Amino acid sequence: MFGDGSRQRVGSIIGHRQYHPVRVSGQQQDASNGRIVFVLLAVFLTFIGAEFSNEGWALWYQTDVLGVPAQYVVFAAMLFMLMPTLRQRPMMSVTNELQESGMWLWVVLGWVTLILALVLGLLRQASEPFADWRNWVVLAVTALVVAKLVADRSWRKWALTDLAIGYSVLSAAHVIVWMGGGGTQLFDVRVPLADGYDLSLAVLAAAVAAEAWIRGFPGMSRAYSLALRLSFAFSTALVMLSFRRTLWAFVVLSLIGVGIWGMRTSRSSRTSAIKLFGAIGALVAVAMFSLGADTVAERLASFNPFAENAYTATNDDHVNDLRDAITVIADEPLLGLGIGSTYETELIAHWKTESFEVHNAFLHSWLKFGILGLITYIGFHIALGRAFLRLGSRGVVGFTAAGLTIFTEQVVSMVQTWPYGGFGYSMARGVVLGIFLACWPDSPTSTEAPTLASTQAA
Q: What share of the chain is helix, strand, coil (3-state, %, to 5)?
């Protein structure tokens, strides 16, 4: 289903140029079809698509299969797919890749803290003992399945850029629907999309496409490079039009990070980075014009917790949400509450009398998993971001951007719930990690951008 496992040249159907016009073989056609199937499946499973849901139409993860939630059926199917592949590519190889990339220690500590928090939650008779750790398991299994499906494919080093294009197609759909008068309401503003998880995937797509732009679209056909340019434009536009201030910060910081990386790489990359900054400025201007300059200015002013305007109504509640959580952490600083436990609120009782999470990923980790959980959360994401950057420095397009988005995500996570609260987003992180594990063993050691020869050798 996912194409030929040989390491021969992939034709120019999807992305790469060929030196001579040749007849596309059945093997090459299978490889191209494999890329398309992989992207369609990954996008279907990970792009939440909440705003596409109309009355009477349930999304796949909201449905049941023979009385069982569909997301559990999908997860069980992935476990079934994983079992036979373990014999083909032993678990030891994944362990080695995690060790070489610097993530192994933090992965182990992560599982230790999860088990301790689960035991603590059960001892305290937590009301939701399956919460929090469930999506971490989803991430791990997804990463293993994707790594084993993609590892021997000739197109594996293009899987992340393929995925970015897939996400951007849905971004374009949202923008086009919004331009036609559709969309959803956020405050008094009509926006194309407000769902934070889907917008986070659009940020990843925009950053990956921006990196490819700065690298000069190495070894890619004109059609594929055009698709990536459009991916950057539509994904960035979707986030800028979302009117979500944390997502504005996320996409701007990520793209600036990619641009700064380009400025420091080479003279040609510096030129592309300058063009990228110009494109970002143009998209920001278009968004401001579309939403209204005064409206955008007030929304930006609402970043200030002491400001007073139409968009600061939730600021006090968010600040008090943090203060309530800090009070609870002060009572249980070492072990935390444990998985599945709620706590009574004081300062936000008019909003909710009991809370399950706090709008700060670091405080949430400390609150639920104790001080070791906080240390592990920080350490894991530093190691994950560094590992992605290392793979990017070896020439695998998209992973420099993926690493930078990991770090910028931690900045915006200071005012957001922790990212593993959603099934789809956890699967999305697992897909990217799986592609990383598939590309890590045989990635070139040079820092040059991948050429046609390097993609063929892969």
A: 65, 5, 30
Q: What is the pTM of this model?
A: 0.86
- The tens digit of pLDDT for each residue in 220-254 reads 888 999 999 999 999 999 999 999 999 999 999 99
Using CA atoms, how far apart are residues 362 and 410, in angstroms rounded to an integer?
A: 9
- 112 Cβ neighbours under 8 A, 6+ residues apart: 372, 376
Q: What angle do CA 212, 214, 215 make, to 5 degrees?
A: 65
Radius of gyration of the chain (CA): 22
Look at residues 409, 456, 408, 414 and name the one whose alpha carbon lies nearest to residue 158. 456
- Beta-carbon contacts of 338 under 8 Å, excluding residues fewer than 6 positions away, are 117, 118, 119, 120, 121, 122, 123, 124, 126, 368
Structure token digits, residue 443: 């990635």
Cα gap 13→220, rounded to integer Å: 11
Question: Which string of DSSP letters, residue by residue, matches 96-113?
Answer: HHHHHTT-HHHHHHHHHH
Q: How far apart are CA 209 and CA 231, in angstroms?
A: 6
